[in-house]
Amino acid sequence: MVVQTNETETDRRAEPTPAARPSNGARVLCRALQREGVRVIFGYPGGAVIPLYDVLPEFDIHHVLVRHEQGAAHAADGYARATGRPGVCLATSGPGATNLVTGIATAMLDSIPLVAITGQVPQAVIGTDAFQEIDITGITLPITKHNFVVRRVADIGPTIQQAFHLATTGRPGPVLVDVPKDVLLAEGELAPPEPVQLLGYRPTIVPHRRQIRRAAEVLRAAQRPLILAGHGILISGATEELVRFAERTQIPVGLTLLGIGGFPGSHPLCLGMVGMHGFAHANRAIHEADVIVGIGMRFDDRVTGRVSEFAPRAQIIHIDIDPAEIGKNVETAVPVVGDAREALLALLDELEPLRHDDWLAQIASWRKRPASGPVAPTGELAPQYVVERLHALTEGRAIVTTDVGQHQMWAAQFYTCDIPHQWITSGGLGTMGFGVPAAMGVALGRPDAEVWAVVGDGGVQMTMFEFGTIVQERAPVHIAIINNGYLGMVRQWQELFHNRNYSETPISSPDYMLIAQAYGIPGRRVTRPEEVDDAIRWARSIDGPTLLEFVVNQEENVYPMIPSGGSIRDMIEEEA
Amino acid sequence: MEGVRRHTLVVLVEDRPGVMNRVMSLFRQRGFNVDSIAVGHSEQPGLSRMTLVVQGDDRTVEQVTKQLYKLLEVIKVTDVTGENLIQRELALVKVAANERTRGDIMRLVSEVYRARIVDAAPDTLVIEVTGPSEKIDSLITLIRPYGIKEVARTGCVAIERGSGSVAVRVEDAVA
Ligand SMILES: Cc1ncc(C[n+]2csc(CCOP(=O)(O)OP(=O)(O)O)c2C)c(N)n1
Ligand SMILES: [Mg+2]
After folding, report:
1. Is A201 on the interface with B (CB under 8 A)?
2. Average pLDDT in chain A
3. In this structure, what are the phi and psi dihedrals at residue A416, rounded to the nearest 5 degrees?
4. Which atom of ligand 1 is closest in space to residue A484's alpha carbon?
């Protein structure tokens, strides 16, 4: 059988050498990206973007050839989370673009500044179902902050400027720029930048004084106040201000999953993570609080459980840059629209020192971390212990990415984070397969950092192909697979709520040592508690990627747990 | 549901391709119900005016408004629900008519609704009627027994009485 590929057939032409050619849309695009400070792009070529790849080597932009476009989007996302700079990914039209979708949605739900560039078929054939034509702006409408189709070379510069502006300002988010091939090929130059003017886009940064005063009044009167700090703290770089504010007002701080690292986990006022798998004392504090200050968080259902029973005694002060978040899920007594850091600075101006000794003592009396230990009842290796040792041996200073599942929650509970941007996880979308490619992006953005990807045996098999990219880039990512032989988090729900009907959750794995070997990654398998330290030390001694497989107790559960749609009264604290 | 009522929202949007798509996508995704939608040019070149009639309690409508504002092309959203509103919709209604019924229909339509007959064929009439949506609803109900063949409605447009205005000047919006 003759397989015909028509991808590049029609476009094949003898062309002069790059340098001899006049500037075209592709060069304009690269220059525009450079102007935005882009140094790394995660991408994958194809017919519609060949013109871009043709000129890319002329520019001082490092292109990382991923193994799947989903990996490009997650890597760009990880890069953005670790550096605070926007991440950029690039894909060809059609399947290249659709492969980005999960990564773009992940970035959308977690407010990550991501710029995705997709090739598109030439404008002359748009709308004809041409080869690899897909309506990617239509597809990504609900999962981007905004998206653009560039129709003329002259629009490339301003569009890229707008895309980066939108992605990084206000509530950040992914922006997609779709560029038809004829626009890349058309002749043109990059015009000087102009101030970005977007009629309908003016995020409120500085909060209203009156609202700040009202918030301060409510706080002054509070007996049992509590701060719930979210991702907005990290996005706005408000950690220092939050610490000052919490210390001055003696208000304890609970963290959302994405807020981890926004306030030092080992600070005496830190209660750790709240919500479904949050610490019991933290959720109790929510239940008893008379005032809750939500900062840069959105009271999502994993935090609140059943909304009608959430924080039943509390008045809520909600600070967020996105007005649509305020009043969306919970009733708010004092809405404050603005940047988290600006709001905290304004509150610091307004508030004198406060004390809540009784309240803090009360919370302290509830404090109990979920149990962990080197040995599970069966004598096997406990996953929590692995994370605890990882924390101890890395002195809590590594950047940790996770996948999604039980291991993610154990990492959140036991890898106490004191440093902003060291905790990188898919919270809103809960995307399995995120951990490995995200770690790769982190390593490229933060070559100075020690990077650990803590992933499950299920999730790692979703994006394992990026081991190839990690090796190719010599990205020093340590991969820790928590192998429990199950899609553990789903199995836990089946155990607790579906009569132990483990339907399709036992999952087999390949021999990870052979996989590691095939990729040329040094690997070790760990099955006993006493081998853990040694293996972690060994991995850390290697300059380059490593893989550790921890074969752990299969039926370990994550506790505490407030079942979905439940309240603190339904909390399961530990194994029955 | 308690507190659920009709709200009329006037939405000024930039006149660019795909804007309608974004607005409708938002409504679909978030499960907001839209009774009617009408779009046309506004007094400002480059700005279109959408009139949306939505059902919801105040909290839902507040969410709708805030979510609309998140769309880049949305310049201004005003909830104009209230006494002071002029609301108009245009409908063309094709109704079956024969020698026996034609006179009745024409009388009803012109005397009660001050609507016009804009086409008369041997077995049909086309009625043109403008007014608040309720008036059109009621006309349709009344002539339904004669046999309605087609109804074409524009959706409601609205403007406030007096000097109050939802308009923005593009220059103001930029400043
Ligand atoms: C892409 C995707 N598919 C399905 C799910 C649903 N899901 C959530 S956790 C989980 C199990 C993950 O298993 P594993 O990676 O082994 O991690 P564990 O829970 O065992 O630690 C599944 C299937 C998801 N979050 N993402
Ligand atoms: Mg597993």
Report:
1. yes
2. 94
3. -65, 125
4. 20
A-chain residues near B71 (CB < 8 A): 200
Say if CB A324 and CB B63 are below 8 A apart: yes
Q: What angle do CA A232, A269, A330 make, to 5 degrees?
A: 45
Contacts of A25 by beta carbon, 8 Å cutoff, 6+ apart? A51, A153, A156, A179, A183, A184, A185, A186, A188
In chain A, which residues have their Cβ closer than 8 Å to the Cβ of B13? 200
CATH code of the domain covering residue A165: 3.40.50.970
Amino acid at A570: D
The pTM (predicted TM-score) of the whole model is: 0.94
Beta strands in A52-144 (DSSP E): 62-65, 87-91, 114-120
Task: Give domain status of residue A35, yes or no.
Answer: yes
Same domain, A393 and A538: yes
Does ligand 1 come within 6 angstroms of the Cβ of A441? no
A200, B69: Cβ pair inside 8 Å? yes
**Pick from A83, A54, A18: nearest CA to A63:** A54
Same domain, A406 and A336: no
Catalytic residues of A: 69, 131-132, 181, 489
Question: pLDDT by residue (tens digit) across A24-40?
Answer: 999 999 999 999 999 99
> Which pLDDT tens digit goes with each residue over B81-126?
988 999 999 999 999 999 999 999 999 999 989 999 999 999 999 9
**Looking at the structure, do residues A463 and A523 belong to the same domain, yes or no?**
yes
C-beta separation of A79 from A87 below 8 A: yes
Shared-domain flag, residues A170 and A267: no
Query: In residues, how long is chain B?
Result: 175
In terms of CA atoms, which chain A residue is nearest residue B28?
A: A142
Residues A425 and A540 in one domain: yes
Q: Does A138 touch chain B (CB under 8 A)?
A: yes
Residues of B in contact with A137 (CB under 8 A): 18
Q: Are both B5-81 and B86-157 of the same fold?
A: yes
In CATH, the number for domain B86-157 is 3.30.70.1150
- Closest CA of chain A from B60, distance in Å: 9
Of A125, A150, A185, the residue at which a domain comes to its end is A185
Q: Which CATH number fits domain B5-81: 3.40.50.150, 3.40.630.30, 1.10.10.10, 3.30.70.260?
A: 3.30.70.260
Whether A373 is covered by a domain: the verdict is no
Counting the structural domains of chain A, the total is 3
Instruction: Show me where the domains of chain B are located.
Output: 5-81, 86-157
Q: Is residue A283 part of a domain?
A: yes
Task: Tell me the average pLDDT across A311-337.
Answer: 97
Q: Do A200 and B73 touch (CB under 8 A)?
A: yes
Question: CA-CA distance, A136 to A94, in Å (whole number)?
Answer: 8
d(CA A288, CA A306): 16
As a whole number of Å, the end-to-end CA separation of chain B is 42
Encode pLDDT of A502-546 as tens digits: 999 999 999 999 999 999 999 999 999 999 999 999 999 999 999
- Residue A430 CA: nearest ligand 1 atom is 25
Look at strands A399-402 and A451-456 and give their pairing.
parallel
Q: In this structure, are A327 and A429 located in the same domain?
A: no
Q: For residue A15, is it within any domain?
A: no
CB atoms within 10 A of CB A274: 27
- The letter for the amino acid at A51 is P
The whole-number pLDDT of residue A370 equals 64
CA A515 vs CA A468, A477, A547: distances in Å:
11, 16, 10
Q: What is the predicted ipTM? A: 0.90
Query: Per-residue confidence at A457, pLDDT binned at 50, 70, 90?
Result: very high
Q: Could you tell me if A214 and A175 lie in one domain? A: no
- Range of the structural domain that residue A295 is part of: 209-366
Q: Do A327 and B62 touch (CB under 8 A)?
A: yes
Q: Which residues crowd ion ligand 2, with CB under 5 Å?
A: A 456-458, 484, 486, 488
Q: Indicate whether A358 and A217 sit together in one domain.
A: yes
